[in-house]
Amino acid sequence: MLHDRLAEDLYAEICRIPLIDPHSHINPHKAASRSLDDILGYHYYTELAHSAGMEQTFLGPDADPRDRVRDIVRHMNRYDNTAQYQWFLEIARTFLGFEGERVTIGDCTWLCDQADKLMAQSDWEQQVLKKSNLEKVFLTNDFDDPLEGFDTAKYVPCLRTDDLVFHLDKPEVRQRLAKATGTDNPGTAIRKLFEHFVHKGARACAISLPPDFSPSIGKVKEGPHAIFWILAEHCREFKLPFDLMIGVNRNVYKKGVHQGRDLYDQRTSLIQYAELFNAFPEVTFPISVLSSPQNQELVSYSWIFPNVVPFGHWWYSNIPAFIAPDLRARLQAVPKVKQLGYYSDAYKLEFCLPKYNMYRRILAQTLAEDFVRPRVATESQAIQLARLLLRDNARRIFDA
Ligand SMILES: [Zn+2]
Prior knowledge:
This protein has 400 residues and is of the alpha/beta class. The protein has helices at 5-14, 36-40, 43-51, 65-74, 83-96, 108-119, 124-131, 162-166, 171-181, 186-199, 224-238, 274-279, 292-304, 320-333, 352-372, 379-397; strands at residues 19-21, 134-138, 155-156, 159-160, 205-209, 242-246, 248-249, 263-264, 285-288, 308-310. The strands form three sheets. It has a five-stranded parallel sheet with strand order 4-5-6-9-10. A three-stranded parallel sheet has the order 1-2-3. Helix 5 packs across helix 15 (352-372) and helix 14 crosses helix 15. Bound molecules: zinc ion. The site of zinc ion has 3 residues, from loops.
């Protein structure tokens, strides 16, 4: 909690702003959790427990979910110093009625039973959305997602394009693309995907990119660079922002848990994207990076390029130690109307609340110290600034 009275007051006000969460991995057909296994199966917990000595015995699909949960909780006393443990504690308190100081193995059965009971309620998803003050949540959809059977005004589709750019040489990806679009021609197929997604209310196109990727028009006529360029042209034509999540190096720890093998890579520079930013002044590029040195570069690019905007605090940089300086730099240097403050990146709805709270506490503290106390802004001006970061900019930039 905050121990600064002004920051605490700002935090309380900031929490009243309804959230537009502009990037998540929520499955709209199963948005909320149904058991504690859905919560603790999140890769952060399996990664942390594994890196602190837990074997992967119970992580396979055939293991008993309660055995898995018990093993992860049993190791919690080895990683209860982390920000991710705090997210879990906040979920246990807010959604499961946990009142203890610290979650230990002795709480495990009670928490599992409580989760089974509460999450079985028919309106659980609505309860979580309401408690979290979430108005819209952006999704990450495979290109062959039919986008049917859910409310696309609440769960906003977003076309994820990693497979198209980096795996189009694989027969199964080609087959999926042909099946989804009725054509073998990649150019025609991509056009059909954009038509389908935009028709279904998609508000962004997104991709994660390895550290050595450097898009260029003249480079090659086919392969990843050519496809990437075609995607950017379609973003221009269909007026979709193109979210770039830059610098992830896949499969660094080869024996890692599921989704726990990738790391960031310092060799990335945004200069690799200068040609792209120059070539597409009409396309907005919300940019996510993985480290504070990269954030400093992003701050400068967002300051200079009208079409480059800083986007949330991604993955390894999504802990208070890095959010605080990264946010402070953005607030001091990037036009306020360009900042997309935060996104949950969550796989289950219950994580939006603790992650946003972590961000909102830092935001409140930063506004208190850098804006209100030095009389750069009044309290209500500071709240207006927070509103841009948490809601209004996302609505305008994504037209959501
Ligand atoms: Zn993500």
